[in-house]
Design brief:
Largest sheet: 5 strands, antiparallel
Number of strands: 5
Mean pLDDT: 87
Shape: globular
CATH architecture: 2-Layer Sandwich
Low-confidence stretches: none
Strand content: 25-35%
Length: about 130
Amino acid sequence: MTTGDPLLRQTRPAQTVDACEARVLVAGLLAPAPGGSGPGDAVIADALLVTSELVTNAFRHGGGLTGFTAETDGRTLTITVSDASSEAPCTAADHGALSEGGFGWELVHLLARRVSVALLPGGGKTIEVTLALA
């Protein structure tokens, strides 16, 4: 994909997406066109890990997934996940050293170029994560 190429996007109704389906959608976006090149294996693995963390956390801590979108412009991948909870994500440090969770949120921050959390007017939140593909 060159810088002049249009944005590629995958959006699905939330009720049809689980972590596995989300990974399939992201992998499809990152697959090189025939004869073209795509991101390296490590970049794809990072993108799939972030995707899994975001979608799994929406189900586990967010009251359920309410939206999923993944899009790329060839240079970056942006994953947007919405859930039903208005509580901000937290890290293991927020819960103490013996915490059961919170490590994935730290991983998302380590791998991402940008992370934002926005509360939705009707309740719930949207998390948007941008990853570099180079």
